[in-house]
Amino acid sequence: MKNLLQLLFLAILFIACKKTTDVNGTFTNNATGLPIKGIRVRLGASNTDIKGNITTISEDADSTDENGKYQLHVEAGSADILLQADVPKGFVEPKTRYIKNGKTRTEDYALNPYDAYLRLTLQHDSSSASKIYYYFIGAFYEDKSDPSNPGALKGIDIPVGEDKTFLHLVPGGQTITIVWDTKKFNIPFNPFPHITSVDCPRNDTTDFILKY
Asked: What are the sequence ranges of the domains in the chain?
């Protein structure tokens, strides 16, 4: 009887460790609502030890069909499960999603297209200043591609420079918030002393001169 109970316990433990996770969903263009074909989607279950070493337990990959749909399946116990996508050129890359194991769930993506441009020119408005150094420049837009966190802000890195022009891809129809500082030692205490909003219409290039 004791051996039978031990075997039953081991069987239950084995089943618990082999929990399956199924994920399906659809990729669409957030501007047009149309499905996107051929996006490579990956689902991976892995464990990370105390030294940071990652061991892959199970993984699966699929490409979206003509309807933008994909299906994935992994087997894992208490492992971390990540859902990732290789987004084609011209779309904002979505964040990696963490999936609770042992569940069947739908994960849809509405990808924002990079169909607008921001050309930013830095310019000092004083003729007496020969140089102006920007120690902090950043641009932010609302990321609408993640349904679980629709109000998230994503940043566009703008290199430090002097009177230079940078052209950046941005999701069309978005308002870009630009923050900057010209005083290096103000950053730790007041990192956003200057804030400017710039509208970037869809399928257009917006020229903006940032003066200080």
From this structure: 16-111, 114-211
Phi, psi of 14 (to 5 degrees): -65, -45
Would the CATH topology of 16-111 be identical to that of 114-211? Answer: yes
The CATH architecture that domain 16-111 belongs to is Sandwich (2.60)
Would you give per-residue pLDDT tens digits along the chain (212 residues)? 555 544 444 444 444 455 788 999 999 998 889 999 999 999 988 777 777 777 777 889 999 999 999 999 988 766 678 899 998 888 888 888 888 877 788 999 998 888 888 888 877 665 544 455 555 677 777 766 555 665 556 666 666 555 667 788 888 888 888 877 665 544 454 555 678 888 989 889 999 887 76
Architecture of domain 114-211: Sandwich (2.60)
State how far the Cα of 150 lies from the Cα of 141, in Å rounded to an integer: 11
